[in-house]
Amino acid sequence: MKKIGFLSFGHWSPSPQSQVRSASDALLQSIDLAVAAEEVGADGAYFRVHHFARQLASPFPLLAAVGARTSRIEIGTGVIDMRYENPLYMTEEAGAADLISGGRLQLGISRGSPEQVIDGFRHFGHEPADGDHAAMARTHTKIFLEQLEGRGFAAPNPRPMFPNPPGLLRLEPHSPGLRERIWWGAGSRATAEWTAQQGMNLMSSTLLTEDTGVPFHQLQAEQIQMFRDAWKVAGHTHEPRVSVSRSIFPIVSALDRAYFGGEAGSHDQVGHLDGGAARFGKSYAGEPDQLVRELAEDEAIAAADTLLLTLPNQLGVDYNAQVLDNIIRHVAPGLGWR
């Protein structure tokens, strides 16, 4: 069995070809897609977070709304850029959203990706020491993880407005168990080892910020193994989780072929990101039997317990729900995922 969820970037565009033409459309359709995903048997609804872009941004109102409208699926992010976050306020928001969903939050966080603006985190009031924004993201993460433990740290007012429990006060609302449902979006093998040392789950996407010449899925499988090995060395007492993202499109109709027939035979790509080499994974498109054969050879998918399917949200809720249904009904059984 493998958990199967979707990952939406939440794009919107005023173009007549888009089914998602406004921020309102993107948010409301994201909720509807999560409901539809639960109905067809998917296991998770995950949303990308980008600032200064016509995409989904502040995630917690959306996550809480999805939690209120669904009852079973996991709800998460992939990923929240920790350079932008106030970790204390984020702790409160995450706790509230998790409690509304009944403990189904799976928060993917990370250092973040290339931005729409120059040093956008500075507009949010965050100034990295010595200009090291990656270190700032990890510092924010450390504080966030500590606060999720729920330990008191703040001295109470001797004359409070409302009665306090004894001792130092913690942030509220506290959601027990959320600390073990935090994931780090790791772009390299070294970062995957660091993720394990921090006791976070591993979230690996369709690109890695390194290239050793081997196919993407093999490099990603190596990343996953290094994460698991580092987890054992760290001595954590619970089992970690690992997710990988893929673009997978079963072709079962003329419309599918019109949209994605050109993706058949896709290959890895090698390029540059943030000044360094990067390897981008291929897309999968084809008839279900063909997809079963190709996906069976993907070593990283085999090594992960969770598969996140990147969906073209601008094609609308109905079409994307059908893509999920086609994968769950026509592809997953042949691979032993269902």
What attributes characterize this protein structure?
338 residues, alpha/beta, TIM Barrel, three-stranded antiparallel sheet, globular
Model description:
InterPro entries: Bact_Lucif_Oxidored, Luciferase-like_dom, Luciferase-like_sf. It holds the Pfam family Bac_luciferase. This protein has 338 residues and is α/β, with parallel strands linked by helices. It has one domain: Alpha-Beta Barrel (TIM Barrel), CATH 3.20.20.30. Helices cover 37% and strands 18% of the residues. The strands form 3 sheets. It has an 8-stranded parallel β-barrel with strand order 1-2-3-4-5-6-8-13, surrounded by 7 helices. Strand 10 and strand 11 form a beta hairpin. Helix 1 packs parallel to helix 2, helix 6 packs parallel to helix 7 and helix 9 packs across helix 11. The termini are close together.
Radius of gyration: 20 Å
CATH superfamily: Luciferase-like domain
Could you tell me the strand content as a percent range?
Answer: 15-25%
| Oligomeric grouping of the chains | single chain
Total domain count: 1
Low-pLDDT regions: none
Order of helices and strands, N to C?
EHEHEHEHHEHEEHEEHEEEHHEH
Mean pLDDT: 95
Question: How are the strands of the biggest sheet laid out side by side?
Answer: 1-2-3-4-5-6-8-13
Total number of helices: 11
Any guess at the CATH architecture? Alpha-Beta Barrel
Measured distance between first and last alpha carbons: 6 Å
Helix content: 25-40%
What's the CATH first level?
A: Alpha Beta
Give the helix/strand class.
alpha/beta
- β-strand number: 13
Q: Describe the sheet with the most strands.
A: 8 strands, parallel, barrel
CATH fold group: TIM Barrel
